[in-house]
Design brief:
heterodimer; A: alpha/beta; Rossmann fold; Coagulation Factor XIII, Chain A, domain 1; 3 domains; six-stranded mixed sheet; 9 helices; about 30% strand; B: mainly alpha; 12 helices; globular
């Protein structure tokens, strides 16, 4: 069978350096051109103030029709670049991609929506941008509008829509695109839970119809649920390409942490986080005597998670915390300073602080856990995103899962709480009413 | 859809031929029209008198220049009425100006599209000339009506006027192919452009007759492609002297050279644009 997507040795070179950001002076560029020839693609990198680096280096894979492939990798691993090349948004420096079938790209919902235009006009506009013909859109128009549920406002300018209405309309257009190859970026999966579900449901539907889906994500549980194959990129190179999802996921998240349990990182272990709010000092797990945990810990031991920061600037919406994931790549829970309603940040002062929280005994199951430090400003941006994967420590929980004689090892389930049970004699009345 | 008809090969832009490019513009003509329609409907959507602006803009400009040149400066009469002369020049100039200015700014203005969806980028600088053609045709219709009302003779050759619009579009597009990618990376291009266009306007016989220019440097005007456009539209609508053969040749050669060079530059730069815009 002809592969749906065939990626043949693609590489992509970028230039790191000043000219990467924003604008620069034309005169300086003209001078450089005068020396190097006008607009000579990648080898222009030889001159001037920027150094070349390969965002992708000789990546090849091929995808059969009907496969649902998740592309994973840390930030900067090149996964978005691969996606953009396959989606033909940016060109490879060398190599080529062969696409067998119409490719539909969803990197953003509502691309090209114009606020002054009505919903109707925007459906046609957005449809055309996504690659649908006018006839095709006209044929599906009623269906698109019905799916969005905003029939009443279809002739109102989109600027009067709520953002939810805009998203719904935009998503309906995208959902009615019928590409043979669907390329989806995870950005799509942000937004409210309802929308995410719709998104993932649609992707599922597309793959069931025998079409090919390429999904870039760092949400390992979404990848796990949706994909039947995982491609793992690191530093622009293909690390793994496998249908054994569990093995890849575990290797991706834990690497060789299985041998060395590292319960502490300090500023010297990680690149500095460029931001105005804090300087990262340390991230560690401690036992109840305050000792850094570097080996297995029993489930009935109390563990505290400590984040050491030097606060430079206070902000009400600032958050710090961590994400715990298990070996299957599932997120067990998130904890962040803004979880409670009491305005934790009000008590925050500039200078060195230790933010700590306790993992209650008998909560985590037996197994290896990965804790990722996160920080950000609510509603604005991440400073250390959950997928940054640089500030990771590990915790191995072994034994002590329960005092029961029946459970010695790992218990089924993600967490393993031991909840108190009570027994009360049932009154006749309650028994009667219960039976109705 | 069969596999063979939909096979697409994504390769480095530098390997794309002129043929590939022209074919890609042709296959995405529907999107081009949709984007041009968006441009048109957005432009006058919120304006109280809407599409009337298309007519009022050159009319007001003509009125101002008529006052300046005829009433104040008392330039010698060229045989045809100054308002018609100026309006014809301004109509085609404003069209050309828009093709170059909006076209030159088009990649920046459509950055959101470029970074999110794949379609031939070459159609982006084409949106302005396509959308502007409607305005220009309306302005020309007004010119014909004005000429008839003022009792001037209107030549049958007026039906060929759209060819001048096409010529202006091709030249404007060819220039925009240079400006658009440059402006995306060096924003000083966009800042300097309005000034350069203003200079270009006064260096061309748009609001004054070429006869006012000293004889010694008048040949320079024959080489000015904008002068060729302006002369051509006056010739077709008002029946004045046609542009010279030299003028046509210069125009044609210049347009081809600018297009070929601009397309090369555009192609070489577009691969990096997404990452730098």
């Amino acid at each position: 069978m002809t592969p749906a997507v065939e990626v043949r040795g693609i590489s992509k070179q970028y230039r790191r350096g000043r000219q990467h950001h924003g604008t620069q002076l034309l005169t300086r560029a003209l001078w450089r051109w005068a020396r190097g020839g006008i607009g000579r693609g990648p080898d222009r990198a030889q001159h001037g103030d920027s150094e070349p680096f390969w965002a992708l280096h000789d990546v090849s894979f091929s995808i059969e029709p009907g496969e649902v492939v998740g592309i994973i990798g840390r930030n900067g691993s090149g996964k978005s670049t691969v996606l953009k090349i396959i989606a033909q948004i940016t060109a490879p420096t060398t190599g080529e991609v062969r696409l067998n079938g119409r490719a539909g790209t969803l990197l953003e919902v509502g691309t090209g929506f114009h606020p002054e235009l009505s919903g109707r006009e925007n459906v046609f506009l957005n449809g055309a941008i996504l690659g649908m013909s006018r006839v095709e859109i006209a044929r599906k128009f009623d269906e698109i509008v019905a799916f969005s549920g905003i029939e009443a406002f279809i002739d109102t300018p989109v600027k009067r829509y709520s953002s939810g209405m805009q998203t719904r309309l935009a998503f309906s257009v995208a959902a009615h695109l019928e590409p043979e190859i669907l390329i989806v970026d995870e950005v799509l999966a942000v937004g409210d839970a309802d929308f995410q579900k719709k998104c993932l449901g649609k992707m599922n539907e597309v793959s069931k119809a025998g079409r090919t889906v390429l999904f870039v994500s760092h949400n390992m549980s979404a990848v796990d649920r949706l994909c039947n194959r995982i491609i793992w990129l690191d530093r622009g190179q293909l690390v793994d390409d496998s249908r054994d999802k569990v093995a890849v996921t575990s290797r991706y998240l834990f690497g060789n942490a299985k041998d060395v349990v590292n319960g502490e990182i300090t500023a010297s272990d990680v690149p500095p986080v460029d931001n105005e709010f804090f300087t990262f000092r340390s991230f560690r797990v401690r036992d109840r005597h305050g000792k850094t945990i570097d080996g297995p810990v029993a489930a009935n031991e109390e563990v505290s998670v400590e984040i050491g920061l030097h606060i430079k600037k206070l902000n009400q919406a600032f958050l710090a915390g961590y994400v715990v994931s298990n070996e299957e790549g599932e997120v067990v829970y998130w904890a962040q300073t803004t979880d409670a309603s009491d305005g934790f940040n009000a008590g925050l002062r500039t200078g060195d602080v230790i933010l700590s929280t306790r993992i209650p005994p008998r909560f985590l199951n037996q197994g290896l856990y990965r804790l990722d430090f996160i920080a950000g400003v609510h509603h604005l941006h991440w400073l250390v995103a959950p997928d940054a994967q640089q500030h990771a420590i590990f915790l191995r929980v072994e034994g002590g899962v329960s005092d029961s004689a029946y459970w010695l090892g790992r218990r089924p389930g993600v967490v393993a709480p031991v909840l108190p049970w009570q027994v009360e004699p049932q009154s006749t009345f309650a028994a009667l009413s219960g039976s109705f | 859809m069969t596999a063979s008809t939909t096979l697409r090969i994504v390769k480095p832009h530098s390997e794309r031929t002129l043929r590939d490019d022209l074919a890609s513009i042709w296959t995405s003509r529907e999107l081009l029209l949709v984007l041009a329609r968006r441009e048109i409907s957005v432009r006058y959507r919120q304006a109280a008198i809407g599409v009337l602006w298309v007519v009022l803009q050159p009319l007001f400009t003509t009125a101002i220049f008529t006052i300046v040149f005829v009433v104040f400066a008392r330039i010698p009469n060229q045989g045809e009425s100054y308002p018609l002369f100026a309006f014809a020049g301004l109509a085609i100039w404003q069209y050309f100006n828009r093709a170059v200015s909006d076209g030159g700014n088009s990649l920046v203005a459509n950055a959101a599209l470029i970074t999110k969806v794949a379609f031939p980028r070459l159609i982006i600088p084409l949106i302005a000339p396509v959308a502007g053609a409607v305005d220009c045709l309306i302005a020309l219709a007004v010119l014909v009506i004005m000429a008839v009302l003022m009792g001037a003779h209107v030549s049958w050759m007026v039906v060929l006027a759209p060819l001048v619009i096409l010529a202006a579009a091709l030249l404007g597009y060819s220039i925009a192919l240079w400006l658009a990618p440059l402006n995306a990376i060096y924003r000083d291009v966009g800042i300097a452009l309005p000034f350069v266009m203003q200079v270009a306007m006064y260096m061309s016989p748009i609001v004054y007759p070429a006869a006012l220019v000293p004889e010694k440097i008048r040949w320079l005007y024959l080489l000015n492609p904008i002068a060729v456009l302006v002369d051509a539209i006056r010739w077709l609508v008002l029946g004045t002297e046609p542009p010279t053969a030299v003028g046509f040749t210069v125009f044609g050669v210049l347009t081809i050279v600018l297009f070929v060079g601009g397309r090369r530059l555009f192609r070489n730069m577009e691969g990096n644009l997404v990452d730098r815009i």
